[in-house]
Amino acid sequence: xxxxxxxxxxxxxxxxxxxxxxxxxxxxxxxxxxxxxxxxxxxxxxxxxxxxxxxxxxxxxxxxxxxxxxxxxxxxxxxxxxxxxxxxxxxxxxxxxxxxxxxxxxxxxxxxxxxxxxxxxxxxxxxxxxxxxxxxxxxxxxxxxxxxxxxxxxxxxxxxxxxxxxxxxxxxxxxxxxxxxxxxxxxxxxxxxxxxxxxxxxxxxxxxxxxxxxxxxxxxxxxxxxxxxxxxxxxxxxxxxxxxxxxxxxxxxxxxxxxxxxxxxxxxxxxxxxxxxxxxxxxxxxxxxxxxxxxxxxxxxxxxxxxxxxxxxxxxxxxxxxxxxxxxxxxxxxxxxxxxxxxxxxxxxxxxxxxxxxx
Length: 359
Ligand code: SF4
Fold this sequence. Notes:
The protein is built from 13 helices and 15 strands.
C-alpha cells in the first residue's frame, strides 16, 4: 500500500491509510490582518488547497480561526510554537489540526493538557520537525541536523504524546537540503506507521524551490512515502498549491490532464509551443487524469499520440487526431485544439463549450 498504515482525519480530509495525497499551504498575511487572511484563505481554497495552515503567534491571533472557518470548507491547521495555551485555545476555537512540537512547550503537564484537549475534540497533532530548530542535545549527539537527528527528534516528540495515550499523529521531517529531507523521511517511514506530511522546507524562490520540491517530494512519493504535502515557496501561497498539484500529476497521483509535448526540432512545421500551451490552458478545468499528447511530426508523434488517451501528431499545417489509440480524423491547424477539446469532453465533467470559451 502507498503511504502510511495509519489514517487520521483532519476535519473531513483523510490523511494516510491509502487516502489520496492531499495538498497543503499556509497563509502568509500578517496575523493581525484578519480580513487579509480570510481573503487569502478563500483564494487558496478556490485554487485547490485541501488543508490550510495558519500561524497562531499569540492569543489575539486565535480570532483568525473562527473568521477563516466561517468562510471556507477545507480544514484549518493552527501552527503553534512554545505556548501550549495557544494550542488549547485554537482547539476550542475550532481548529481541525494542531501543528506543535510537544517537546517545545514546557514539560509533562502541558503536553498532557494538549493531548487531552485534542483527543476530546478529535483533533490530530502534527509533530513538525525542522532541521533549523532541532534540540541542542540531539544536534550535539549527531554532529548536526543529519537525517538520523531529525528522525530521533521526531520520535522523541511522538513518545511524549504516546505517553499520554495520544496516537492521532501526523509527522513531518523537513530540511532545506533535498537529500537530507528524503533520507530523514525514508528513515522514519521505515520505523513507524504514522501518516507523513512531506516537503522540502524553505526551498526558496519559485524556480529552484519548485525543482527542489519536485525532486524531494517526488522521490518520496515514488517510493510510496508521503500522505500529504506542502511545497514551501518564497512566493504567494497559491503558487504552492499549483506546484503541489503538478508534482502529484508528474508522479501519476494527480487529477486533471497531463500534456505530453515534444521539444520540436527541424522537422516541426507548426507553432507547437503555442499549441501545447493553449491545449494545457483549455483543458485545465477537466478533473479526469488523462494524458494528452501534442507532437510535432510523424517521427514520434503517432506513437505517443496513440499511447496517450488522446493526442495529435502534427504535419505541415495539419494534425492527425488520436483517441483511445486510434486515428479519429485529420484536421487543419486551426481545428486541432477544438478537436482535442471535443474529445476530452468524452472523459469528463465539463462540456466542450466550456473549454472553447477559454481559448
Ligand atoms: Fe522533432 Fe518530430 Fe520528435 Fe517533435 S516528434 S522532436 S518534431 S522528431
